Every structure is written in structure tokens, then in C-alpha cells.
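Thread: "does anyone have the structure for this chain?"

Original post by V.I.:
We have the sequence but no experimental structure in hand. Need at least a predicted one for the grant figures.
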Amino acid sequence: SASARVTTMNARVGAGRFFVALVALALALTGCTPNLDDRVNTSLEHSIEDAQDTLWEFRDRIASNPEETLADLYFVADLREGEGDLSPIRLLDLIESSDGPTLTLLGTGDSQTSAGMWSSQADGAVCFNLTFPRKEKVIRTTPAECPVTAPVEGYDSVIPLEELSPRLVVTQDDYPPPICQCYSGSPCDCPGG
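Reply from O.Q.:
Generated one for you, C-alpha cells below.
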């Protein structure tokens, strides 16, 4: 009869929808959504490179007089003094040697993913050293031990530098001079004027 065929067809459509929903759920649960850990690691790498980029301008001053220079930089939170850790650069320690000072810094990163009705978020921390040699115009990045307690205790994970892929050495080549531009009617200091 016609009503039996309609009922059978509705059951097939319902079963098809259920199957599609089941496949979508399986794909979401098996990793077809962005990997949250990879995103946190990328964010941590950016945190390290942002510290390198920000401190490059002050490299010579830090190499010769780190304590005074860091005290003058409003964007550096000295966690040795218990300052708040919302600043972009968080200083955990400073060690002076004959080669130059080494800053132990805390980098943080986070990420969020969403796939339909599901969303996840995570954050992480990394501790690393930036060394400012007095005889070379470089900043070297090396692993550092994170403290077991604050300021890292609230993060989902603490990732060792060895598991990340930031630049480990920065030089003047990483910071080329800006392109010289002249504007009509203004004095021009560019080569070839």
C-alpha cells in the first residue's frame, strides 16, 4: 500500500540521517578537527620570538647593564619581585657572567578550537633563556627550567623548549633596516635622493 511505502521511505531517510550524524561524530572524535596542542605550541613559539624581537632594540644596553635596562622597560614584569605577570615579557631570573647576561623568561600561549557544538581551549607555558653576549651582536635562546610553583602552576601544560621550533639565534640580519621612502615636497635622505 502507499502508506506502507511512505513509512518505509521515512524510515530509510531517518536511518540515513542517523548514519551521517554518526560519521560526523566519529570524524570529530578521531582528530579531523584542528590539533589543540599544535596550536598551543605555535602560540608558545610566537611568544619566544616576540620576546626576541622586542628586546633586540635594547640588546646592547641589556648586554652592558641588564638590571638597570630591564627596570626602565615598562613591558617587562620582574617576577623575581612578585610583579604581576600580565606584561608581555616575564622575567624569572637574571644571571650575569663574563660572557654576558642571561635572562630566564616565561612565555605563555593559548588556543581555542571549535567544531560545531564542541569547543576546546588550552594554554601552556615555556621557560627559556635569552643570552646577550657582550662580544657578539646576537641573542641566543636556550632551554631553562621552569619553577614548580607559581607563576606556571595555573597552566594546562609546561612545554620544554626542545619540543618547540622557534628561532634559537637572532642577529642583525633578522632586522633589516626599513625601506627608505621619499615624499613629494619633503626633504629626502634616501640614497640617490
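V.I.: this helps a lot. The chain has a mean pLDDT of 83.
O.Q.: and The two ends are 91 Å apart (CA to CA).
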